[in-house]
Amino acid sequence: MISGVSAVLLAGGQARRMGGVDKCLQLLGGKTLLARVLERIEPQVGPILLNANGERERFESYGLPVVADVVSGYAGPLAGILTGLRWTIENADTCKWMVSVPTDAPFIPTDLVSSLMAGIEENGGEIACAVSRGRTHPVVGIWPVALAEALERALVDEDIRKIDHWTALYRLVEVEFPADNVDPFFNANRLEDLAEAERLLPLKR
What we know:
Largest sheet: 7 strands, mixed
Radius of gyration: 16 Å
Strand order of the largest sheet: 5-4-1-6-8-7-9
CATH architecture: Alpha-Beta Complex
CATH superfamily: Spore Coat Polysaccharide Biosynthesis Protein SpsA, Chain A
Structural class: alpha/beta
Number of strands: 9
Order of helices and strands: EEEHEEHEHEEHHEH
CATH topology: Spore Coat Polysaccharide Biosynthesis Protein SpsA, Chain A
Number of domains: 1
CATH class: Alpha Beta
Number of helices: 6
């Protein structure tokens, strides 16, 4: 675990491509996607927040604080990241950094946080995000908590919705992760993706 880092697990989307169900509560190998993400990220960080809209009770068994977007109108993953930053400021003031992880990505690397932090330190970055197979994953990133106010202004006053539009304002470091057998950032957006994840599950440990 890296001290001083909180995590926000992003489950605030509307899951249109999966029929509006909770993607993170779909089963993969007998466990929910959320359970798989949680068991991979929990050893890497301190406090963890689940960002989800709607009834909190459906996540009660996970023992996590559940907070809806602090910006209304399903403003996308930036709203979830802001929610996590605000929660960290109010509930985990020893954490100066926060990692964001989608809850439909069951193969998240077990060295995600240490690798992102190393990218920051080695390259003098302000923000870091993950890359695999030549593709950038802006939603998988590490953020200084001190940027909460700037992000809120971008969302509320400037109507910025795309993560890469906002990160372009800062020194962004892209950290490459190996993806030999399985892309570690494979995400289950559709029901057919769950079938593919079942096929990949034995290959990813």
